[in-house]
Amino acid sequence: MLSNAEIALAVAVVAVITFACRLAPFVLLRGRSSSPLLGFLSRAMPLGVMLVLVAYTLSGLTWAPASWAPCLAGIAATAALHLWRGSIALSLIGGTGVYVAASLLLT
Q: Widest CA span of the chain, in angstroms?
């Protein structure tokens, strides 16, 4: 069994590593705003993230409406919000909200 000091040390190490991982991209990319690679990534990453989220959402679906209907509602809401406002944050939060609400209503 771990002592309180060992648990505190483990939490501190994990916190430092997490903070360093969050800070590293900003430190490493400072002064490289005109890089062609960064320009490409800033255009391609939002689409890539959305594709990964759609693939994850659609994995494990069954033919039961309680399985596919929330996914379809969430994806439709995400696409509609993004086309309407062009905001990635709004579309992700709104689509997730619709998905969760539909999941809760259909279970």
A: 54
- Residue 30, token pair as written in the block: 């400072």
Distance CA 56, CA 62 (A): 14
| 29-62 as b/e: b if 16+ CB within 10 A | eeeeeeeeeeeeeeeeeeeeebeebbeebeeeee
**What is the per-residue pLDDT for 30?**
79
Handedness of CA 78, 76, 96, 81 (dihedral sign): positive
**95: how many CB neighbours lie within 10 A of its CB?**
24
Q: How remote is the C-alpha of 5 from its chain's centroid?
A: 34
Q: Average pLDDT for residues 49-55, to the nearest whole number?
A: 82
**Token representation of residue 47:** 């689409």
- Number of helices (H) and strands (E), helices first, in the chain? 4, 0
What is the value of pTM for the model shown? 0.55
Residue 78: name the closest of 97, 103, 101, 62 by CA: 97
